[in-house]
């Protein structure tokens, strides 16, 4: 399985359960590992056979700008479903962290992995 990754993706968004968190955007950090539907791009060197990183980033930024999530878990799940459904990935790992939100803690967050129900990931025959 071939994967692409986005690391250290920082953005401001409304996230949290407290009243101030519903009004003041916080910086979050996202890290994603995204399985490619095929390994065709390795041989064709053609973007059409891969996933366009810029479209994924744009779609996530659009979500962060328009939606409020109470929990990091819900945000991570939403992003995972975008990648699986809209970008046709068979598997995704999403980490979401709030930065410097608790004194003495640099990051706190959640990491989830999800599989698409459209794919059955099996090892290649030897």
As laid out across the biggest beta sheet, the strand order is: 1-2-3-4
SS element count, helices: 3
Uncertain parts: none
Biggest beta-sheet profile: 4 strands, antiparallel
Description:
Strand 3 (91-102) and strand 4 form a beta hairpin. The chain has helices at 41-44, 53-66, 72-86; strands at residues 3-13, 26-35, 91-102, 105-115. The chain is an alpha+beta fold. Helix content is 26%, strand content 35%. It is built from 3 helices and 4 strands. A 4-stranded antiparallel sheet has the order 1-2-3-4, covered by helices on one side. The chain starts with a strand and ends in an 11-residue tail after the last strand. The protein is elongated and about 50 Å long.
How is this fold's topology laid out?
Elements: E1 3-13, E2 26-35, H1 41-44, H2 53-66, H3 72-86, E3 91-102, E4 105-115
Antiparallel strand pairs: 1-2, 2-3, 3-4
Write a compact overview of the structure shown.
The protein has 126 residues and is an alpha+beta fold. 26% of the residues lie in helices and 35% in strands. It has a 4-stranded antiparallel beta sheet, covered by helices on one side.
Write out key terms for the chains shown.
26% helix, four-stranded antiparallel beta sheet, alpha+beta, 126 residues
């Amino acid at each position: 399985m071939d994967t692409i990754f986005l690391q250290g993706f920082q953005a401001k968004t409304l996230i949290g359960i407290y009243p101030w968190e519903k009004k003041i955007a916080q910086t979050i950090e996202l890290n994603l590992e995204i399985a490619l539907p095929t390994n065709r791009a390795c041989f064709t060197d053609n973007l059409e056979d891969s996933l366009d990183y810029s479209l994924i980033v744009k779609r996530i930024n659009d979500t962060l700008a328009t939606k409020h999530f109470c929990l990091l878990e819900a945000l991570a799940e939403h992003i995972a479903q975008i990648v699986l459904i809209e970008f046709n990935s068979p598997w995704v790992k999403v980490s979401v962290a709030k930065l410097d939100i608790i004194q003495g803690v640099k990051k706190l967050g959640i990491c989830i992995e999800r599989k698409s129900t459209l794919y059955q990931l099996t090892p290649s025959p030897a």
